[in-house]
Design goal:
It is a single chain. The protein is mostly helical. It contains 11 helices and 4 strands; from the N terminus they run E-E-H-E-E-H-H-H-H-H-H-H-H-H-H. Strands 1-2 form a two-stranded antiparallel sheet. Helix 1 runs antiparallel to helix 11, helix 3 packs antiparallel against helix 8 and helix 8 (208-233) runs antiparallel to helix 11 (275-303). The longest helix has 38 residues, at 8-45. It starts with a strand and ends in a 5-residue tail after the last helix. 21% of the residues are buried.
Length: 308
């Protein structure tokens, strides 16, 4: 049958194509405008040198990438920053995600004081980050030493001022700050699980552990996957709140790659000669982490728990 010169089959295909275009046009425009357009200058800067005397930029080829090696990798600075970045990511992934999903399950099953814990975990997200850092530094610098002295009678240095405990203190703070967001997301996802599934499992005599492993975890796995992937994608950009702790004066043995780039941009906000190398760093790390992120996404999708 033909209608208005087009067959019904052709009209169906056009309708499906139109629906698909309407579905993807908004996210596509967002990607082009808020990622590609915003960052296009950074891509160009990575292959340029800037002359402050003539106020002109010239093509530099791979010179800026060579500077990364001579100024960071060869002197050993990059090794320390990479180690710190991976440490922050590892703790955030292993302890942060695992702890958050287990604690979320506790709140979801309405354990004792679960509503109180939910409120406490939400508090850091309604208070200014600067205020939280000041409160945390005050407690770790003076509160904990005072408590320790009252118990043992011995004096100790503040946790942040002590070189041996400074970085673990920052890692703990970053872990604590990210914990609340994950718990809220997991609890919201768990709340959407059909109650009849859990009730049917209880009739069959399922335990809390088995219910978590065989029912809850597969159903919240898409949310878990999102946190794992965003954690991997942010390995080289996570500054672990170091700028809030020490502004641009954080010691080199504590710096992460994300903090280094953020700090250098703050220091060289008006020094255009430093921008090309920083742009090259961002581009280089993107090319490194992007394939890893897609590979992990594929592995999680293929080998992760399934609802069926």
């Amino acid at each position: 049958m033909r209608m208005n010169g087009l067959s019904a089959k052709t009209k169906t295909k056009i309708g499906k194509l139109s629906f698909y275009i309407c579905l993807i046009i908004l996210p596509l425009l967002q990607f082009l405008l808020f990622y590609l357009y915003v960052n296009i200058n950074s891509f160009i800067l990575a292959f340029q040198n800037y002359d402050v005397f003539t106020n002109t930029a010239s093509f530099a080829g791979w010179d800026n990438f060579r500077k990364i090696y001579t100024e960071l990798i060869e002197p050993g600075k990059f090794e320390v920053m990479l180690k710190n970045s991976l440490t922050v990511w590892l703790w955030s992934t292993v302890l942060g995600i695992v702890g958050a999903i287990l604690f979320s399950y506790y709140i979801y099953k309405q354990g004792p004081l679960s509503n109180l814990f939910r409120t406490i975990l939400y508090m850091p997200h309604v208070i200014s980050t600067v205020v939280l850092v000041v409160m945390f530094k005050y407690f770790s610098e003076w509160g904990i030493p005072a408590i320790y002295e009252s118990i043992t009678g011995r004096l100790i240095d503040g946790l942040y001022s002590n070189p041996d405990t400074a970085f673990p203190t920052v890692v703990f703070y970053s872990l604590w700050m990210g914990f609340g967001t994950q718990v809220l997301m997991y609890v919201s996802t768990m709340a959407g699980i059909d109650v009849s599934i859990s009730e049917a499992a209880k009739i069959d005599g399922i335990t809390y552990i088995k219910e978590f492993w065989y029912i809850t975890l597969p159903l919240v796995f898409p949310t878990l996957t999102t946190f794992i992937l965003t954690g991997i994608a942010g390995i080289f950009t996570n500054q672990a709140n170091l700028f809030s702790f020490g502004s641009t004066g954080v010691s080199g043995d504590m710096q992460t790659i994300g903090y280094y780039m953020y700090k250098e941009l703050q220091i060289n906000a008006t020094n255009k000669t430093a921008w090309p190398m920083l742009s090259a760093m961002g581009l280089l790390f993107t090319f490194i982490v992007a394939p890893i992120t897609f590979l992990v996404r594929w592995a999680l999708k293929k080998y992760g728990p399934r609802v069926d």
